[in-house]
Design a protein that fits this description.
Elements (H helix, E strand, L loop, with lengths): L15 H19 L6 H8 L3 H7 L3 H30 L3 H13 L1 H16 L1 H7 L1 H14 L1 H20 L6 H12 L2
């Protein structure tokens, strides 16, 4: 009996959008873990578990990947602002409500590091500045109708500092201290 002829397995092309998302998410995770400067095509491909060539197939340059990853991180900030806006609409400018909404982000080391990575990358890359300012500007815009521009600005600056503090320390600011600080800024 003659041996059955094997048909070569047909290679299935990956979904381009899925592959692109994998690369962007991996780059964003690496930025959070090691910083924007440490990105390489090889590290991104390994983290995304994709062939090395995929990074250049879907992105012309490493800077394009870095920008897409920063955009991804900034979009997460927009989601946080939307959630904060909902809490503000429900509870008004309550320091306790603000703290309760903000503390989970501060206690999530990855989130605090992601936001801090975005800030740090924007210090040396003007193209990223617009993304890094999204949290601050969104927070000020949400608070301003409730407490005025000056107090909203002070809270935005404080929130940036608290985020960096959380990224640097194993124990972020505690709830009582956060509420007391917010109250002092809101009612000064």
């Amino acid at each position: 009996m003659p041996a059955a002829k094997k048909t070569p397995a047909r290679r299935v092309s990956p979904d381009p959008e899925k592959r692109r998302r994998q690369i962007v998410q991996a780059a964003a995770e690496l930025i959070v873990e090691t910083g924007s400067i440490e990105l390489t095509h090889r590290k991104i491909a390994a983290k995304a578990q994709v062939p090395l060539g995929s990074t250049t197939q879907y992105f012309a340059t490493l800077d394009d990947i870095r920008s897409a990853a920063m955009q991804y991180l900034a979009d997460k900030v927009d989601d946080d602002i939307a959630e904060f806006q909902k809490a503000l609409d429900s509870h008004g400018p309550s320091a306790a409500a603000f703290a309760d909404k903000y503390l989970p982000q501060l206690h999530d080391r990855q989130t605090a590091r992601a936001e801090t990575a975005l800030i740090c990358a924007a210090v040396t890359n003007n193209d990223l500045r617009v993304h890094a300012l999204r949290w601050y500007e969104g927070l000020v815009a949400a608070l301003e109708p409730h407490i005025g521009r000056e107090k909203a600005t002070a809270l935005g600056i404080f929130a940036d500092g608290v985020t960096v503090h959380a990224a640097l320390n194993d124990t972020p600011i505690d709830r009582d201290l956060l509420i007391n600080s917010l109250n002092a800024l809101m009612h000064r």
